[in-house]
């Protein structure tokens, strides 16, 4: 992505490649880039706008569209929210006994790509003969997201044969006996997510000594993000009427605000980190919250999504309607939401897979 700094413009994406003139031994002269065809969608025509000082400023139209997309995306990905929920605030590391989180994080990568419109179920009516998790997914938009892990997974999916949701989660987790597909494993996901959160100013990096070795840890530097996640979790799991206030972590313009939150809750439940957001609740309230998220996982791990039966007095009584409204407003994206449901169906049997 092109950026600007106080000292001037950096090299912009899409610029013609410059090379030293072969006739100049010192290489002091630079050849002009070859002319580009303006009708090539991969090389859109450079746009110009007038600056405050009257000079024209060049920009790449793709940067404008990407900025518009980013404004509708949350500050944190689903994977980052799950990792942040599991991290110990001061110590800066996850529980050593948590075996589920690595698998759940790979599932969140698939969900995030679906929410961002990059992948969907293969449009084939015969797919309904198979369980959700066994239906094939395909890349429908190969535009990079700017998130390293998402883009790495997207490129793999684009260059590979079509595979099912459960197969992709297995392969990215390294859960395969097929040596030909071991290269699909996404490595060091937790560490890379933590470093991304450091770049976003939410975590910081420290080095701690664990008896025989030193290990990089990532304590919380800005508690605002984690506090917002905890509030959102408690909001959905304890209130009769759920209202999600807009924030940088959940922009008002973003599609599927409520459904994304449900997916985050279910992923946190599968990753065994949900309890960290419920520590301020009493024992009975925590038990009710776990029962609630268990119901949510059952309802949203099927497609079409199940209908809530708790009545007007139940926790989150309005969720069924607000999520149905979100789905009805995006009828052209039902194949993407089917991927979300398929991932949640994998989470329902996570314990038996590990």
- Share of β-strand residues: 5-15%
Which strand order do you get reading across the main beta sheet? 5-6-7
Choose one word for the global shape. globular
Quaternary state of this entry equals single chain
- The whole-number mean of residue pLDDT values reads 83
SSE pattern? EEEEHHHEEHEHHEEHHHHHH
- Share of residues in helices: 40-55%
Number of helices: 12
Largest sheet: 3 strands, antiparallel
Alpha carbon gap, first and last residue: 38 Å
**Total beta strand runs:** 9
Q: Structural class, judged by helices and strands?
A: mainly alpha
Roughly how many Å is the radius of gyration? 23 Å
Quick recap:
With 354 residues, the chain is mainly alpha-helical. It contains twelve helices and nine strands. Residues 1-42 have low confidence and may be disordered.
Fold and architecture overview:
- The structure is a single chain.
- With 354 residues, this protein is mainly α.
- Helix content is 40%, strand content 9%.
- The protein has 12 helices and 9 strands.
- It starts with a strand and ends with a helix.
